[in-house]
Amino acid sequence: MSDAQLARVDPLIVNLTIAKGLVGLESLDVDRYRRFVDDLANRIRAGLSASEPSEMTSELYLKDPDLWRVGSMAVALAGPSIGIDYSDAPLTTPDPKLLFVHGVIDTRRGTCSSMPVLYLAIAHRLGWPLKAVVAGDHFWCRWDDGVPGGKRFNIEATSAASDGTTGSFSSAPDAEYRERLGVQPVAKRVGSDLASLTPRQTLGVYLQTRAACWSSRGDWERAEHDLLLARVCFPENRDIFAFLVQVMHERAGLIFTESERWNLAPRLPLGQPRAPATRKSPGDPLEHLRRVQEFNESTRRRQFGGP
User: Fold this and answer.
1) Helix, strand or coil for residue 159?
2) Residue ranges per structural domain of the chain
């Protein structure tokens, strides 16, 4: 499939197709989820049309009508009638319900791995140029019209709140993401972090997420397979690369003796010790949750009267 063809595919379908590859999720009713998101998009479209005339003089609308629209979507999704919220349940192992978009729809709870997918799927239906963005283990969305010097702003999918009357959402600048998430300059320079992702690169992120599920079960072969595909889709991403290295090390433990694995290690100059590969994979979605939650709290913006 060409990049142009992939760009026309519903982001919801792409994410659910990857999820269906997991054991126990083979029978996911993709069409049911599609109908649900179709309905959400129609409700949000109608709400925006109804509220826009009275909001045209509001501070947020005057600042940027598109920011008002996307923020209104975020507030509407968080409001009592829909009730999408960030899950504060402790993640001790990767849980597909919290990592893929079907879980957000079924439970109304999600994480930065799943909630942005719902935003992307609705934006796809509304014709908005919303793109995926990652930095380390965090995943959010960005309005990016693709024009050099054009319109770009971030939208955080995990921070919106609403009591049905007033609401808030987060649209932090790249500099704040860079500082709070500890993004290294090289990560931005090579196109790994803070870039607006293509649909193919976004597919790579979904494959990385599925690999985390396989690795949590000790299924290193399937994890490696998904990460190799993820590398093809998103070769610039440092976390996918590091996660693949970690998983290949684990697989090596199954097919090589300990002494053979020692000989597989890169040759280092004399006197430089080999560091054991025991650290947690940076591709593991369990990392950085505390920092992400703190970031979300610190970047909320006030908005009144979501649709």
Assistant:
1) strand
2) 3-198+289-304, 201-264
Distance CA(142)–CA(118), nearest Å, equals 13
Chain segment 68-125, per-residue pLDDT in tens = 999 999 999 999 999 999 998 776 678 999 999 999 999 999 999 999 999 999 999 9
Q: What is the pTM of this model?
A: 0.88
At which residue do the structure tokens 């935003």 appear? 119
CA distances 76 to 39, 48, 164, Å, are: 13, 10, 8
* End-to-end CA, the chain: 37
Pairing between strand 130-135 and 138-144? antiparallel
In Å, what is the CA distance from 276 to each residue of 94, 246, 269? 24, 11, 16
Q: Which helix (H) or strand (E) holds 86?
A: strand 85-86
Q: Please report the DSSP string for 99-140 in residue order.
A: HSHHHHHHHSEE-TTTHHHHHHHHHHHHT--EEEEEETTEEE
